[in-house]
Each structure stands twice: as C-alpha cells, then as structure tokens.
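Standup, Tuesday
Yesterday: got the pipeline producing structure tokens again.
Today: sanity-check two examples.
Blockers: none.

Example 1:
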Amino acid sequence: MIMVEYMSQESFNKLKQKLEAMKQKRAKISKTIGEARDHGDLRENSAYHAAKDEQGLNEMRIKDLETKLENVEVMDEKDIPKKDVVSLGSTVKIRAVDSGQEFTYMIVPEHEADILEDKISPESPVGGALLGQKAGKVIEVDVPAGLIKYKIIEIK
C-alpha cells in the first residue's frame, strides 16, 4: 500500500532536480560501460563491473525518486491552518527549563528533517513530544543525555 507523503514546494523542487541529475548521469555511465567493454574480456574487467554496478544503483535511485514524487502532495504554507497546537508545518519556539536556552524548530516530514536547518520531524524525540501541544505547556523529552523539560514559548 502506497501512502501519500506531504512535503514543501522547496523539497519537491529539490527532489525533481536530483531526479533530473540522475537521469542525465545515465549517458555518462553508458559511455563508461562502453569504454570498459572495449578493453576486452568482461569476466576480469573490474572497470566494466564497477560501471554496471553504478548503473544499477543509479537506476534504483531513479525508480525510488519517481515513486516518491508520484505519491507526494505539496503543502502550500498558506493552506496550513494556523492552530494553537503544534502540528506538521508549525514553527515552535521552546526554552529549556533548567538552562533557559531557547530553540526554534519547524516540524516537518521525516525526509525534510535537518537539524542544521532547525527542521525536526515528529519521529524525533523533541518533535514527537511537541506534536499536539499548546503554547505555555511544559513537556518532558527523554533524550540520550537524560530527561529534559522544555516550555513551549510560541507556535507559528
């Protein structure tokens, strides 16, 4: 059963660009295979086998991306209802109760999560604890370092 996946327009465009780059790589791989084939005996031709392996991996990735892109629904940020609870697409400002350190995260689907861009998914400990919560609420998150309490300061 194939499930619809939600993503931002930006992520959708990045995946399409990646797919096009992989499709363009096909010609280069085919050329490499042809050149390696010209070197003679294919049984002991490591360049040929490496190129064939690369071709197989590239085709597998193309197929995966095509399937993913066929089952995507692009989220338009203006269509995301502004709620008073944390949901997918929310930007949440939290403060660690013990240290006072503040963090701002956007809750995104798993494939868009990137901690360097302050994007976390509901599958992460913090993202999962935030989901469905309201501003002012104190949540407890069990992380490898132990139990941490965060207060939800703001939801956008």
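Example 2:
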Amino acid sequence: MRVTFSVLRLGTYPVVPWRNGAGVTREIACSPVGASAGEFDWRVSIADVPPSSAFSSFAGVDRVIIPLDPPAMTLTVDGIRHALSQHQPFAFDGEAITSCRVDGGPSRDLNVMTRRGRIGAAVVVLDDALVDVDSAGDRATLVVVLSGARSALSPESASPLELGGLDALVLRGGAVAQLSGSGRLAVIRLA
C-alpha cells in the first residue's frame, strides 16, 4: 500500500439519506470508495439526528457513535436506554433495534461503521495539545476534529495543513502526522 496523507473538508462531504429515510448523513470516507450502504467494509460519517428518530438497521455491522453537540442524547438499543454526553464514544450492534431522543432539538453525531468479520475499529477521543498519529499496521487511520482547530504536519506535506471543525485527516500505508492546537479529536484506527 502506498503512503498517503490527505485532508478532507466538512464542506465537501457528500450528503446521503439514511437507509430508513429518517435523516441524512455526510459521508467523510468509506471503503471501497463509492460503496452503497449495504456494501461498504467501513464508513465514517456525520449524521444529522432529528429530536426523535429510529436508526437504520445494518446487519453484520459494528457501530460507534460520538455525539457532537451538547444537547443530551439518549439511545435505546434493544430496549436498553443509554444516556450519552458530548464527545463520548458509544459502541453497539448495527442490527440492534435502535432509537434516539435528543433533548433540546436536533443534533449531530460522528458515525463509525465496520463490517463485522472483515474489519474492526478502535475509536478514542483525545484533547491533548500535541497528538502523534500513524497508520502503521492499520488499513487507514482517520482523525476528525470534533472541536477547536488543529495544524497537521507530516513528512508527506511541505508545510502544516490547517484543520477546522469536523475536517478529517486520512493516513494510509504507514503515513505519520503530528497534530498541534486545541480542541478534541476523534482518532479512528481501522484494522
């Protein structure tokens, strides 16, 4: 695999309707590129979540969501309620019967979906001033700026790249980067 280091911008993410038609998601990246909702190995996206909605079912998919906005989000997964706070990752099975309630109106969340048995994801949220990331041993590593702004420096870039809110950095093939600045980051390792 070739070493790559690329930046994806919030304003360029394609808007895709939810499978159940209850909302929309902005697709940051997926593999294979252009795969439909039923064919991807992995997908990372930002969903617009209405105040009350049912989530689409994804059989054979593991999901992690991270609420992006401060209103309280409550997920009911197979009848069990889970109160989530802003930037708190929560993992669940894609085929579970899942509904969401957002106090105070609509919200957004970051979604990480992986095809069970093909690929897995490790998702962490960091707010360190300096964060080193690499894609060694991973199919890809994505870093999404959840809040604040970051500068990303890599041997693959001639000068630092500026990342704003919900911009993403994608590293593949052993690429490395150092991110400086303030705010929270979601680091997603796909392996």
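Quick observation on example 2: The chain has no helices and 19 strands. The chain has a mean pLDDT of 93.
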